[in-house]
Design a protein that fits this description.
Blueprint: H1 19-36, H2 40-47, H3 52-81, H4 83-106, H5 127-159, H6 167-222, H7 236-249, H8 259-265, H9 293-296, H10 312-330, H11 332-338, H12 342-349, E1 351-352, H13 368-393, H14 401-432, E2 443-446, H15 451-475, H16 481-510, H17 528-553, H18 563-599
Parallel strand pairs: 1-2
Length: 600
């Protein structure tokens, strides 16, 4: 008797075997994209004949799109495509964009002809040339929007095994490896890619990122059969939209008269910690009010139409997001300061960058000092200063997140003051040396004077950026972890747009027929120091705005619970007390009735 052949078990998917492919995809994308940004203003000014204000604005718009697209990518991945397909399509878009950018350097007809030095005239870019350039930037931004929000979570999907007793340790090792590779990628981009562009030209300098992006996309897709691919689910953004729509629909409903009755009037999600919605932003509570229990709720306890009835949890998630927005907005000014990459690059290009007689630091590599400062401080703070302070005081010591955010804003203001002073000295030296009409000449002043402002920016990001991210994670419900991770990127996107508006306003208000703009293409004729002083004043005003928003917000998370959870906890206690009081009243009535019957 022939036995039926047993089917071979399906090979296990995920695991450590997928890590090299995922991390390589993210690392190559970071090297390629971050390596293009530092020197881009020089490419636009020299090859496309842009003025410094126009070129800076284009870079700000590109950076804003790159920082905003991850939000859209996260929504598409969660709601429709899933993480794998979103990353794959993002990799293809990034590769296409970098290839187009490389073609602008390879094909002479793709950019304007060189300037006529004898007549001192430069031909502007034609419409097709601008379309090609902007298409390259747009595809790179779209690609970043597909890769960056999904890569970390997609890697966690591969190694997250809840049944494994060492699961937490495996995840921690993966996160450490991921962030270490991200740091090394940015470091390589700001040194190796920038150095290549300076010494080998744009053809090689843009070609290497395109090749790296090709390997990024190829390696990621190659391991497709081994991945764990989670299906798309409903996005939090959809839930936010539903709450707003339903609250507007139910705007004429009356709130329940008693909180005990409200327990039955609000739609609860099974397993949710929320019992009643909080009183803050109370008008949103109407989104979870049940009008007709028989028609609004299915037998499974779900809303029959999520666009007509939301859960208490959905309402509280939107409230948490709205509540942090004022404090989130205080970080935009720091992001504006940090995003000032074009002007420091022009400063560094006009200063002596030699370390030895034969080696000089590329002008675009000075941003490395910010990355190194940030990394060293985070490690020193977390592994050195806090344990030492805790040991001295005999109890755990930790700086509050709002205190760290405020310290970062103060340091950022100091960075702009230092930038203004250094630029004032540099410009004064250039004028003394008779270089007013020669912006490409090197001033007899070391570019190492720029290092303090870069280091201060690193400290500012270490305090405010890290503090803000921790603030969001502690104040938001666990279900909003993805939103918490993307809030800083959204701030950077808004900051890039505002920075562009500031540059345009300064250029328009300070230029005229008899005077040069503060942000003139000729760095020696312009007044970049005044521009930095303007940012310093705005940063100082922002500190007072932060203090006001911090006071309005109230206390942050304490004892492992955020304010929302504390309020919900007090409501739970109130519910218990009401029920206890009701039961006690019933028992007292029964006792009184029993005593009356005994007397009779």
């Amino acid at each position: 008797m022939n036995r039926p052949e047993e089917e071979a078990p399906e090979p296990a998917k995920g695991g450590l075997i997928t890590m090299p492919f995922i991390i390589a995809n993210e690392a190559f994308e970071k090297v390629a994209s971050y390596g293009l940004l530092p020197n881009m203003i020089l490419y636009l000014m020299r090859d496309y004949h842009f003025g410094v204000a126009k070129g800076t604005n284009l870079i700000f718009f590109w950076s804003a799109a790159t920082n905003f697209m991850p939000l859209l990518g996260a929504f598409i991945a969660d709601s429709y495509l899933g993480r794998f397909l979103t990353i794959a399509l993002g990799s293809i878009c990034s590769l296409s964009g970098m290839t187009l950018l490389w073609l602008t350097a390879m094909i002479p007809q793709a950019r304007p002809p060189p300037c006529d030095q004898s007549a001192r005239t430069c031909e502007s870019s034609s419409t097709p040339q601008m379309i090609l350039l902007i298409s390259a930037f747009a595809l790179i931004s779209i690609g970043a929007g597909g890769i960056r929000p999904c890569s970390l979570a997609f890697g966690a999907d591969q190694v997250d095994r809840r049944e494994n007793p060492n699961n937490k340790r495996v995840l921690e090792s993966y996160f450490n490896l991921y962030y270490a590779s991200a740091f090394l990628s940015v470091l390589v981009a700001l040194t190796g890619i920038v150095y290549t562009q300076d010494h080998l030209g744009w053809k090689v300098g843009f070609g290497i990122p395109a090749i790296l992006m090709f390997f990024s996309a190829f390696l990621f897709v190659l391991a497709s059969p081994f991945y764990v691919k989670q299906k798309a689910n409903k996005s939090l953004f959809t839930g936010f939209a539903q709450v707003i729509v339903v609250a507007y629909k139910n705007r004429k409903l009356l709130f329940p008269s008693q909180e005990l009755d409200g327990f039955h009037c609000y739609h609860q999600k099974k397993g949710s910690e929320s019992v009643l919605p909080t009183d803050k932003l109370r008008f949103l509570n109407k989104a979870c009010m049940v009008k007709d229990p028989e028609n609004d709720i299915t037998p499974d306890g779900l809303a029959s139409n999520p666009w007509s009835l939301c859960t208490v949890q959905q309402v509280e998630e939107l409230k948490a997001l709205i509540k942090v927005m004022p404090l989130w907005s205080t970080g935009i000014m720091l992001s504006i300061n940090v995003s000032q990459t074009s002007f420091p690059l022009l400063q560094a290009s006009s200063m002596d960058r030699h370390i030895t007689s034969s080696f000089q630091i590329p002008a675009g590599s000075f941003g490395t000092f910010t990355i190194i400062t940030l990394t060293i401080w985070v490690i020193l703070y977390d592994r050195g200063l806090l344990p030492l302070a805790s040991k001295v005081r005999g109890k755990p010591v930790r700086l509050g997140v709002k205190l760290r955010m405020g310290m970062g804003l103060l340091i950022s203001c100091m960075a702009m003051v230092v930038s203004a002073i250094v630029e004032h000295v540099r410009r004064k030296r250039a004028l003394q040396e008779g270089l007013r009409e020669n912006p490409h000449a090197v001033v007899g002043m070391s570019a190492m004077w720029l290092v303090p402002q870069y280091c201060l920016n690193g400290f500012a990001e270490a305090f405010t950026a890290v503090g803000q991210t921790e603030f969001y994670y502690s104040e938001f419900p666990r279900s909003m972890s993805s939103i918490a991770a993307s809030m800083f990127g959204l701030g950077m996107a808004v900051a890039n747009l505002l920075a562009s508006a500031i540059v345009s306003a300064v250029d328009g208000l300070t230029s005229g027929t008899t005077r040069k703009s503060w942000v003139s293409s000729n760095i020696n004729e312009g007044r970049y120091d005044n521009y930095y002083w303007l940012l310093s004043i705005m940063s100082l005003v922002n500190i007072f705005y932060f203090l006001f928003c911090s006071w309005i917000y109230g206390p942050c998370a304490s004892s492992g619970k955020n304010v929302q959870e504390q309020e919900i906890g007090s409501r739970k206690e109130l519910e218990v007390r009401k029920v206890e009081k009701k039961l006690k009243d019933e028992l007292d009535e029964r006792e009184e009735g029993k005593e009356d019957s005994d007397l009779k």
